[in-house]
Design brief:
Layout lengths: L10 H20 L3 H8 L3 H14 L17 H12 L14 H12 L5 H10 L16 H16 L19
Helix pairs in contact: 1-3, 2-3, 4-5, 5-6
Length: about 180
């Protein structure tokens, strides 16, 4: 799981990774092969090759850690405003029912803060801030159980179709004429 700040690494672990990359940079300057560097530093050869490519393009300073790949675009104040909007309910924002879907939350973020998120980005953002997916504990008051039963009895069998094949079949996987 990704963490919102620091990529989930402690300060000591970040320092350790910085030192590893620094040692690799010194060895790049001496012209040592990637496989030997990877073996000595106990990292993968592909990581060393990636570091070498970065080092070739930008020097030792390019190997410094840059922090997490992405930060949440909504700050804490904006997230508090979003929570207040969500607390009003989805009907207050123009939807017919009180369900919040990720697409609806995405729309509210776009309208309120003029930012675009993907649906999965909204999910990750909400989970990162302590929200979880929920399913209603009870059925809707508007549900008509008789209509549902009638539909299951009359309409569903027509949609499902017959399970029998049209022509004669053979229960065995082998053909009847095979020896």
């Amino acid at each position: 799981m990704r963490y919102p700040q620091g990529g989930g690494l402690t300060a000591e672990r970040q320092q350790f990774r910085e030192e590893l990359r620094g040692q690799a940079a010194e060895r790049f300057a001496r012209g040592e092969p990637s496989s030997a560097i990877a073996k000595d530093l106990r990292v993968s050869v592909r990581s060393v090759q990636r570091w070498r490519r970065i080092w070739d393009e930008g020097g030792p300073r390019a190997l410094r850690l840059r922090g997490p790949a992405s930060l949440p675009r909504l700050n804490e104040k904006q997230f508090a405003q979003l929570e207040a909007e969500l607390a009003k309910g989805s009907a207050a924002h123009g939807w017919e029912d009180q369900r919040w879907t990720l697409a609806r939350v995405k729309t509210v973020i776009g309208r309120r803060f003029h930012m675009t998120y993907t649906v999965q980005g909204v999910r990750k953002f909400l989970v990162r801030n302590g929200w979880s997916c929920q399913v209603p504990a009870r059925r809707a008051m508007e549900r008509d159980d008789e209509a549902v039963a009638g539909w299951a009895r009359e309409v569903w069998p027509c949609l499902e179709g017959s399970r029998r094949s049209v022509g004669p079949g053979w229960p065995s996987r082998t053909k009847p004429d095979s020896p």
